[in-house]
Amino acid sequence: MRVSRRVLLGAAAAAGASVGCRPALAEPNVGELQLKHADGRETAYRILSPGRGGVWPVVLFSHGANSSNLDYDLLWRPWAERGYMVIGANHIDSGPAAGQRKVGPGALWTARLADTALPLSQRGPFDDFAKGAGASIDWGAVCVAGHSFGAVVAQALAGAKLLDPADHAPVDGRIGAASACMTFSPPGPLPGFIPADAWATVTMPSLLQTGDADILPGFVNDWRLRLTGFSGAPDRWSIVAHGVDHYFGGLICRRKPDAVADLPALKETADLSGDFLDAYVRRSPRARQRLNSRSQAGDDGLLIFAAA
Protein backbone atom coordinates (compact mmCIF):
# COMPACT_ATOMS: atom_id res chain seq x y z
CA MET A 1 0.00 0.00 0.00
CA ARG A 2 1.45 3.33 -1.04
CA VAL A 3 0.26 6.41 0.79
CA SER A 4 1.24 9.82 -0.55
CA ARG A 5 0.95 11.90 2.56
CA ARG A 6 3.05 12.95 5.48
CA VAL A 7 2.94 10.78 8.54
CA LEU A 8 3.94 11.97 11.97
CA LEU A 9 6.86 10.12 13.53
CA GLY A 10 7.04 10.21 17.31
CA ALA A 11 10.34 9.44 18.95
CA ALA A 12 10.32 6.76 21.61
CA ALA A 13 8.23 8.28 24.36
CA ALA A 14 10.68 7.94 27.23
CA ALA A 15 9.72 9.50 30.53
CA GLY A 16 10.04 13.26 30.46
CA ALA A 17 10.69 13.43 26.71
CA SER A 18 7.95 15.92 25.87
CA VAL A 19 8.54 18.00 22.77
CA GLY A 20 9.80 21.49 23.48
CA CYS A 21 10.00 20.79 27.25
CA ARG A 22 6.87 22.87 27.80
CA PRO A 23 6.36 23.99 31.40
CA ALA A 24 3.55 22.58 33.51
CA LEU A 25 0.36 24.61 33.12
CA ALA A 26 -2.54 25.36 35.41
CA GLU A 27 -5.03 22.56 36.02
CA PRO A 28 -7.85 22.71 33.44
CA ASN A 29 -11.35 23.74 34.49
CA VAL A 30 -14.04 21.06 34.24
CA GLY A 31 -17.71 21.86 33.72
CA GLU A 32 -20.99 20.59 32.34
CA LEU A 33 -23.76 22.34 30.43
CA GLN A 34 -27.16 21.21 29.14
CA LEU A 35 -28.48 22.44 25.81
CA LYS A 36 -31.97 21.92 24.40
CA HIS A 37 -32.59 21.10 20.75
CA ALA A 38 -35.47 22.58 18.76
CA ASP A 39 -37.47 19.37 19.26
CA GLY A 40 -37.06 19.57 23.04
CA ARG A 41 -34.40 16.88 23.35
CA GLU A 42 -31.59 17.80 25.76
CA THR A 43 -27.90 17.00 25.43
CA ALA A 44 -25.29 17.21 28.18
CA TYR A 45 -21.85 18.60 27.37
CA ARG A 46 -18.63 18.05 29.28
CA ILE A 47 -16.15 20.91 29.13
CA LEU A 48 -12.43 20.94 29.75
CA SER A 49 -11.00 24.43 29.47
CA PRO A 50 -7.72 26.19 30.27
CA GLY A 51 -7.04 27.02 33.89
CA ARG A 52 -6.30 30.59 32.88
CA GLY A 53 -7.83 33.49 30.99
CA GLY A 54 -7.17 34.54 27.42
CA VAL A 55 -8.90 33.77 24.15
CA TRP A 56 -9.85 30.12 23.77
CA PRO A 57 -10.19 28.27 20.45
CA VAL A 58 -12.66 25.37 20.49
CA VAL A 59 -12.47 21.60 19.94
CA LEU A 60 -15.87 19.95 19.39
CA PHE A 61 -15.50 16.23 20.19
CA SER A 62 -17.78 13.26 19.48
CA HIS A 63 -17.19 10.10 21.56
CA GLY A 64 -17.14 6.49 20.36
CA ALA A 65 -20.18 4.21 20.13
CA ASN A 66 -21.77 3.30 23.48
CA SER A 67 -19.07 5.28 25.27
CA SER A 68 -19.47 8.69 26.93
CA ASN A 69 -17.95 12.13 27.25
CA LEU A 70 -16.36 11.03 30.53
CA ASP A 71 -13.96 8.63 28.82
CA TYR A 72 -11.49 10.91 27.00
CA ASP A 73 -9.91 13.18 29.60
CA LEU A 74 -6.42 11.76 29.00
CA LEU A 75 -6.69 13.00 25.42
CA TRP A 76 -8.59 16.23 26.10
CA ARG A 77 -6.61 17.47 29.09
CA PRO A 78 -3.40 18.24 27.16
CA TRP A 79 -5.43 20.25 24.64
CA ALA A 80 -7.04 22.25 27.44
CA GLU A 81 -3.61 22.85 28.95
CA ARG A 82 -2.54 24.33 25.61
CA GLY A 83 -5.39 26.83 25.78
CA TYR A 84 -8.33 25.11 24.04
CA MET A 85 -11.89 24.75 25.26
CA VAL A 86 -12.87 21.12 24.61
CA ILE A 87 -16.62 20.54 24.33
CA GLY A 88 -17.81 16.93 24.27
CA ALA A 89 -21.46 15.97 23.79
CA ASN A 90 -22.95 12.96 25.58
CA HIS A 91 -24.77 11.20 22.73
CA ILE A 92 -27.95 9.17 23.05
CA ASP A 93 -25.98 5.91 22.78
CA SER A 94 -23.93 6.74 25.89
CA GLY A 95 -24.26 5.31 29.38
CA PRO A 96 -24.03 1.85 30.96
CA ALA A 97 -27.23 0.57 29.32
CA ALA A 98 -26.56 2.23 25.98
CA GLY A 99 -25.97 -1.00 24.13
CA GLN A 100 -29.54 -2.10 24.91
CA ARG A 101 -31.26 1.11 23.83
CA LYS A 102 -33.54 0.78 20.81
CA VAL A 103 -32.29 3.62 18.67
CA GLY A 104 -32.56 3.35 14.89
CA PRO A 105 -29.38 3.98 12.88
CA GLY A 106 -30.83 7.04 11.16
CA ALA A 107 -32.06 8.61 14.38
CA LEU A 108 -28.76 7.96 16.13
CA TRP A 109 -26.72 9.39 13.26
CA THR A 110 -28.88 12.51 12.96
CA ALA A 111 -28.77 13.03 16.72
CA ARG A 112 -24.98 12.71 16.88
CA LEU A 113 -24.48 15.30 14.14
CA ALA A 114 -26.91 17.68 15.84
CA ASP A 115 -25.35 17.15 19.29
CA THR A 116 -21.83 17.91 18.13
CA ALA A 117 -22.74 21.03 16.13
CA LEU A 118 -25.30 22.52 18.56
CA PRO A 119 -22.81 24.60 20.63
CA LEU A 120 -22.10 26.66 17.50
CA SER A 121 -25.70 27.90 17.42
CA GLN A 122 -26.10 28.15 21.23
CA ARG A 123 -22.88 29.89 22.16
CA GLY A 124 -24.19 31.94 25.07
CA PRO A 125 -23.76 29.37 27.89
CA PHE A 126 -20.21 28.61 26.77
CA ASP A 127 -19.37 32.30 26.49
CA ASP A 128 -20.65 32.76 30.05
CA PHE A 129 -18.54 29.80 31.21
CA ALA A 130 -15.44 31.36 29.67
CA LYS A 131 -16.27 34.82 31.03
CA GLY A 132 -16.43 33.33 34.52
CA ALA A 133 -12.81 32.25 34.06
CA GLY A 134 -11.74 35.66 32.79
CA ALA A 135 -11.58 34.42 29.18
CA SER A 136 -13.40 34.67 25.87
CA ILE A 137 -13.98 32.16 23.07
CA ASP A 138 -12.79 32.48 19.49
CA TRP A 139 -15.68 30.88 17.63
CA GLY A 140 -13.83 31.44 14.37
CA ALA A 141 -11.15 28.95 15.46
CA VAL A 142 -12.89 25.58 15.72
CA CYS A 143 -11.70 22.00 15.26
CA VAL A 144 -14.16 19.12 14.88
CA ALA A 145 -12.83 15.86 16.31
CA GLY A 146 -13.98 12.43 17.34
CA HIS A 147 -13.06 8.83 18.06
CA SER A 148 -14.35 5.72 16.24
CA PHE A 149 -18.05 6.37 15.43
CA GLY A 150 -17.41 9.89 16.67
CA ALA A 151 -14.61 10.19 14.11
CA VAL A 152 -17.21 9.62 11.38
CA VAL A 153 -19.27 12.45 12.90
CA ALA A 154 -16.20 14.70 12.71
CA GLN A 155 -15.64 13.64 9.08
CA ALA A 156 -19.23 14.53 8.20
CA LEU A 157 -19.03 17.93 9.87
CA ALA A 158 -15.76 18.55 8.01
CA GLY A 159 -17.50 17.86 4.69
CA ALA A 160 -16.91 14.16 4.01
CA LYS A 161 -19.06 12.45 1.38
CA LEU A 162 -21.18 10.10 3.50
CA LEU A 163 -24.52 8.31 3.26
CA ASP A 164 -27.31 8.15 5.82
CA PRO A 165 -27.07 4.65 7.39
CA ALA A 166 -30.87 4.41 7.50
CA ASP A 167 -31.69 5.01 3.83
CA HIS A 168 -28.27 5.47 2.13
CA ALA A 169 -29.19 8.99 1.03
CA PRO A 170 -26.31 11.49 0.73
CA VAL A 171 -25.58 13.46 3.88
CA ASP A 172 -24.25 17.01 3.94
CA GLY A 173 -23.58 17.70 7.60
CA ARG A 174 -20.68 20.12 7.16
CA ILE A 175 -20.33 23.12 9.43
CA GLY A 176 -18.76 26.27 8.08
CA ALA A 177 -17.12 27.35 11.33
CA ALA A 178 -14.57 24.53 11.47
CA SER A 179 -11.01 25.29 10.43
CA ALA A 180 -9.56 21.80 11.07
CA CYS A 181 -10.57 18.18 11.65
CA MET A 182 -9.06 15.41 13.81
CA THR A 183 -10.22 11.79 13.58
CA PHE A 184 -9.04 9.07 15.95
CA SER A 185 -9.54 5.49 14.66
CA PRO A 186 -12.18 6.16 11.98
CA PRO A 187 -13.58 2.86 10.64
CA GLY A 188 -12.73 3.26 6.96
CA PRO A 189 -15.17 2.26 4.17
CA LEU A 190 -18.53 0.79 5.20
CA PRO A 191 -21.11 -0.21 2.55
CA GLY A 192 -24.11 2.10 2.48
CA PHE A 193 -22.50 4.54 4.92
CA ILE A 194 -18.86 5.46 4.24
CA PRO A 195 -17.73 5.36 0.58
CA ALA A 196 -14.08 4.62 -0.14
CA ASP A 197 -13.67 8.19 -1.42
CA ALA A 198 -15.45 9.83 1.52
CA TRP A 199 -12.42 12.02 2.30
CA ALA A 200 -12.34 13.46 -1.24
CA THR A 201 -14.70 16.32 -0.33
CA VAL A 202 -12.85 17.33 2.85
CA THR A 203 -10.75 20.40 2.07
CA MET A 204 -9.79 21.58 5.55
CA PRO A 205 -6.52 20.54 7.27
CA SER A 206 -7.00 17.10 8.79
CA LEU A 207 -5.25 14.69 11.12
CA LEU A 208 -6.01 10.95 11.35
CA GLN A 209 -4.75 8.62 14.09
CA THR A 210 -4.72 4.84 14.14
CA GLY A 211 -2.46 2.02 15.36
CA ASP A 212 -1.11 -1.12 13.76
CA ALA A 213 -3.13 -3.11 16.33
CA ASP A 214 -6.30 -1.05 15.69
CA ILE A 215 -8.40 -4.06 14.63
CA LEU A 216 -11.98 -4.91 15.57
CA PRO A 217 -12.60 -8.46 14.26
CA GLY A 218 -15.62 -8.69 11.99
CA PHE A 219 -15.79 -4.92 11.64
CA VAL A 220 -12.33 -3.63 10.74
CA ASN A 221 -10.06 -6.62 10.09
CA ASP A 222 -7.11 -4.61 8.75
CA TRP A 223 -6.05 -1.38 10.43
CA ARG A 224 -4.87 0.00 7.06
CA LEU A 225 -8.50 0.29 5.99
CA ARG A 226 -8.81 3.19 8.41
CA LEU A 227 -6.45 5.17 6.16
CA THR A 228 -8.49 4.61 2.99
CA GLY A 229 -8.95 7.79 0.98
CA PHE A 230 -7.05 9.95 3.44
CA SER A 231 -4.15 10.75 1.09
CA GLY A 232 -3.99 12.99 -1.95
CA ALA A 233 -4.65 16.41 -0.42
CA PRO A 234 -2.44 19.05 1.19
CA ASP A 235 -2.32 19.59 4.95
CA ARG A 236 -3.24 16.00 5.76
CA TRP A 237 -1.35 14.33 8.59
CA SER A 238 -1.56 10.93 10.20
CA ILE A 239 -0.25 9.19 13.28
CA VAL A 240 0.23 5.43 13.11
CA ALA A 241 1.11 4.14 16.56
CA HIS A 242 3.02 0.87 16.86
CA GLY A 243 1.26 -1.74 19.00
CA VAL A 244 -1.68 0.55 19.76
CA ASP A 245 -5.23 -0.79 19.60
CA HIS A 246 -8.61 0.92 19.24
CA TYR A 247 -8.73 1.96 22.90
CA PHE A 248 -5.07 2.72 23.67
CA GLY A 249 -5.05 -0.33 25.90
CA GLY A 250 -8.17 0.73 27.80
CA LEU A 251 -7.28 4.38 28.35
CA ILE A 252 -10.07 5.85 26.20
CA CYS A 253 -13.61 4.86 25.19
CA ARG A 254 -13.60 1.36 26.76
CA ARG A 255 -11.63 2.26 29.84
CA LYS A 256 -10.03 -0.37 32.05
CA PRO A 257 -8.97 0.18 35.67
CA ASP A 258 -5.23 0.84 36.00
CA ALA A 259 -4.62 0.58 32.23
CA VAL A 260 -1.14 1.94 31.53
CA ALA A 261 0.23 -0.22 28.69
CA ASP A 262 -0.15 2.44 26.00
CA LEU A 263 0.18 5.58 28.15
CA PRO A 264 3.39 6.80 26.46
CA ALA A 265 1.71 6.43 23.06
CA LEU A 266 -1.37 8.33 24.21
CA LYS A 267 0.75 11.12 25.67
CA GLU A 268 2.70 11.43 22.45
CA THR A 269 -0.50 11.35 20.38
CA ALA A 270 -2.00 14.12 22.51
CA ASP A 271 1.19 16.17 22.06
CA LEU A 272 1.34 15.67 18.29
CA SER A 273 -2.34 16.46 17.87
CA GLY A 274 -1.80 19.55 20.03
CA ASP A 275 0.88 20.70 17.60
CA PHE A 276 -1.61 20.11 14.78
CA LEU A 277 -4.21 22.25 16.57
CA ASP A 278 -1.72 25.04 17.14
CA ALA A 279 -0.56 24.91 13.52
CA TYR A 280 -3.97 24.98 11.86
CA VAL A 281 -6.48 26.37 14.37
CA ARG A 282 -4.21 28.99 15.92
CA ARG A 283 -2.26 29.23 12.65
CA SER A 284 1.08 29.20 14.49
CA PRO A 285 4.12 29.07 12.17
CA ARG A 286 6.24 27.66 15.00
CA ALA A 287 3.80 24.79 15.54
CA ARG A 288 3.83 24.09 11.80
CA GLN A 289 7.62 23.97 11.97
CA ARG A 290 7.40 21.45 14.83
CA LEU A 291 5.12 19.25 12.72
CA ASN A 292 7.47 19.46 9.76
CA SER A 293 10.48 18.63 11.93
CA ARG A 294 8.75 15.54 13.32
CA SER A 295 7.54 14.07 10.05
CA GLN A 296 9.14 11.91 7.42
CA ALA A 297 7.95 9.79 4.53
CA GLY A 298 8.96 6.15 4.41
CA ASP A 299 9.21 3.95 1.31
CA ASP A 300 5.50 3.21 1.48
CA GLY A 301 4.57 6.60 2.90
CA LEU A 302 4.14 5.17 6.39
CA LEU A 303 6.28 5.50 9.46
CA ILE A 304 5.29 3.88 12.70
CA PHE A 305 5.06 6.05 15.78
CA ALA A 306 7.13 4.18 18.35
CA ALA A 307 5.24 3.65 21.59
CA ALA A 308 8.35 2.24 23.26
Rounded to an integer, what's the Rg over CA atoms?
18 Å
Give the CATH superfamily.
Answer: Alpha/Beta hydrolase fold, catalytic domain
Mean pLDDT: 84
- The CATH class designation is Alpha Beta
Total strands: the figure is 12
Ends apart, CA distance between termini: 25 Å
Largest sheet: 10 strands, mixed
Number of helices: 6
> CATH topology, what is it called?
Rossmann fold
Order of helices and strands: EEEEHEHHEHEEEEEHHE
Q: Which architecture per CATH?
A: 3-Layer(aba) Sandwich
Report the uncertain regions: 1-24, 97-102, 298-308
In what range is the share of β-strand residues? 15-25%
Largest sheet: spatial strand order: 2-3-5-4-6-9-10-11-1-12
**Domain unit count:** 1
Which structural class should the secondary elements be placed in? Answer: alpha/beta
What portion of residues is helical? 10-25%
Shape: globular
Could you give a short description of this structure?
With 308 residues, this protein is an alpha/beta fold. The protein contains 6 helices and 12 strands.
Give a structural overview.
The strands form two sheets. This protein has a ten-stranded mixed sheet, with helices on both faces. The chain has one domain: Rossmann fold. The radius of gyration is 18 Å and the shape is globular. By secondary structure, the chain is an alpha/beta fold. The protein contains six helices and twelve strands.
Outline the fold blueprint.
Elements: E1 6-8, E2 29-36, E3 42-49, E4 54-62, H1 73-81, E5 85-89, H2 105-121, H3 124-132, E6 135-147, H4 149-157, E7 162-163, E8 170-171, E9 178-184, E10 206-211, E11 236-241, H5 263-280, H6 285-293, E12 295-296
Parallel strand pairs: 1-11, 4-5, 4-6, 6-9, 9-10, 10-11
Antiparallel strand pairs: 1-12, 2-3, 3-5, 7-8
Helix pairs in contact: 1-5, 2-4, 5-6
